[in-house]
Design goal:
alpha+beta; Rieske Iron-sulfur Protein; 2 domains; 6-stranded antiparallel barrel; 4-stranded antiparallel sheet; about 45% helix; about 15% strand
């Protein structure tokens, strides 16, 4: 079934890709102009993508519409539908903030996800209108009940594609989730050094620490180091630029404090692994991950 569903999603590419690219340009421009709003909706303040938190509410609430119809509580079904639609709107707003910094296959899947959710939202609004005007205690019409079932099936399909965005393409997943936290000192190999073996000052330098790539920034005698792979989408921080005491990712402009890796600007919601660096006995450098 998984292979069949994947082929079905891939078959939508002829319209999903151009449509998604067009919508993304507008969406990105809007949220790029409002970094505080983007950070709020991304969930940087929470340390967790807020869209994932909000999506559970409308799915659970809108399922109650069907339950209340079955048990003969039309008024309760109507209220559940209203609250569910409002919850969908809130989740959609957070999803648009994430979408503004989504690329590649993740964007294609997210476009299909958003389209299905928009169709479900329209179906629920139509269903709500169909329920208006009747007596408070009168059972919902057959058309209204069928409409809510169809809308929930579309909603479920959209939720499935949304899960694919996260679990298959890894969108908004912490790129350092499985990285070890060992504190053993290892030899550090900067990509470039001065004639005296010193690290150039005032600009990002890439370095190798065992199997890890780091970005180094020398500030006087202090050498600040973070993992080179951006926690948000894997961008190379060593190709970014310095902004005050932070480094900005070249892909989506997430900013991390060099001293401790704390994220100070989204779309990333995760902190960056930080490392200690010191001179090595006999020359050169060594580093270990901060506790």
């Amino acid at each position: 079934m998984a292979r069949w569903l994947t082929r079905l999603m891939d078959a939508q590419r002829p319209w999903v890709k151009p449509f998604g690219d067009a919508v993304h340009r507008i969406d990105h421009a809007i949220f790029q102009a409002m970094p505080p709003v983007r950070d709020l909706l991304n969930g940087r303040w929470l340390g967790h993508p807020i869209h994932a938190v909000l999506t559970d509410a409308p799915i659970g609430i809108l399922f109650l519409v069907i339950v209340f119809d079955v048990v003969g509580q039309p008024a309760a079904a109507g209220w559940a539908l209203l609250v569910g639609v409002l919850a969908m709107a809130g989740a959609a707003l957070a999803g648009l903030a994430d979408y503004a910094d989504t690329d590649g296959l993740s964007r294609e899947r997210a476009t299909l996800h958003a389209t299905l959710m928009a169709v479900a939202l329209v179906l629920y609004v139509v269903d709500g209108v169909a329920r208006l005007g009747g007596a408070t205690d009168a059972p919902a019409s057959t058309a209204a009940v069928i409409g809510s079932v169809i809308a929930f099936l579309v909603l479920s399909a959209g939720a499935f594609v949304g899960g694919d965005v996260v679990y298959v393409t890894g969108n908004m997943v912490n790129r350092h989730a499985f990285r070890g936290t060992g504190t053993k000192w290892l030899a550090l190999e900067p990509a470039e050094t001065g004639a005296d073996g010193s690290i150039p000052e005032g600009r990002p330098i890439r370095a190798r620490l065992g199997s890890n790539s780091l970005v180094l920034v020398r500030n006087g005698d202090a050498i600040l180091a973070l993992h080179d792979t951006c926690a948000h989408a894997g961008g190379p921080l060593s190709e970014g630029h310095l902004v005050g005491d932070t480094i900005e990712c070249p892909w989506h402009a997430s900013r991390y404090r060099l001293a401790d890796g704390r994220v100070v600007q989204g779309p990333s919601v995760y902190d960056q692994p930080a490392y200690e660096v010191r001179p090595r006995d006999g020359g050169g450098w060594e580093a270990r991950r901060q506790a």
